[in-house]
Write the structure tokens for this entry.
Amino acid sequence: MDEELGLQPGSLTPLQLEHLVHLALWMPFAKAVQLLADLMGVQVSEATARRHTEEAGAAYEAVQNEQASQLVHEKEKKSKKGRARSCQPHQRAVKEPETKVILSSDGAMVPLVGGVWAEAKTVVIGQVKSKETPCKQRPGQQVEAVNLSYFSRLSDSETFGRLATVETERRGVCQAKEVCAVQDGAEWIQGFVDLHRPDAVRILDFAHAAGYLSEIAELVRAAGTHLPEEWLAQQLHELKHHGPAAVLKEVSRLLHMHPHVPDLDKKVSYLCKREQHMQYPRYQELGWPIGSGSVESANKGVVQARLKGAGMRWERSHVNPMLALRTAVCNDQWEPAWLQTCHQCLLQRQERRLLHQQTRQDAALGKLRQLLLRLLLLGSPASTVPRRPASDHPWRRRLLAKK
């Protein structure tokens, strides 16, 4: 009857359960329990709130994993048949494609049980909009990313790229007319972009490049070379407004002066390999952002704001369920996500009940087979155990001898 009425196990009504899980995605479980009692007069324990939230998150994670598998299978099937084209605009016109889309990825550390830290990967997808700047000193247009959505998982890069297909397809990344990928230079991020939009304009985050230049300046000064105080500001201005050619020439000169300084060659080589991703004047002319502030904010506001609180330690198996529902809330997709979660929970409950019934039936059949086998091998108890001793039984002989 609970399954027919759509009720979940426990004493909470569907609305109370939804509010409890919703609150637990924004604040620690203890505070969520207290706020639920204040708002609805419902008393539950912190352990109950944790259990319900993690079970709901695991159900929604399973829904998204299944959707991702279907989407990846469809793409592979089309590719094998030769009908799939490279990811270009208007590939699947489910709606009007967005003009300019930003795709930015990064990782954030999450504390696990046992003092271990693990990296939760996040991708941010948004629209690129330009607006007039009111500042008189810097007239022109300001570029910003709006309508942001997120997808996060604690997994390896290959699995993350496959699972993120759910969000990239929902946002129409492949159908967008233009896409830029602003990120740091991590190799796994390049593979992620290759998977979802290989023709995207790849931009090295300007703050990331500035950090490398600052570290190069510190290493050179530590080696004894005098650099003017304004050296870093001059290089950043040159990089942002004129491109990387002069800056790379300058850092190469410093490397030639100090070839034996530890890590200096690695940092210079890092920048030189990414020269094509540092064409900031051209990116700004095209109306692209040159900073990955959106994904940095996502790491703090979406992932770490809930999973990196004081004293928090998470089981590894509980991280992705929390991230699945947490990103759904931050994407303003709570209502459809909760409906899918409840449906999945009911299906899982029905499967467990049917499995339990099947297990009991198998056990009963097993006992019946053993009983039948025993009857066949030993016969019935009435035929094997005589009611009276035989005539030659020793007991009878002793009685006859006494007579």
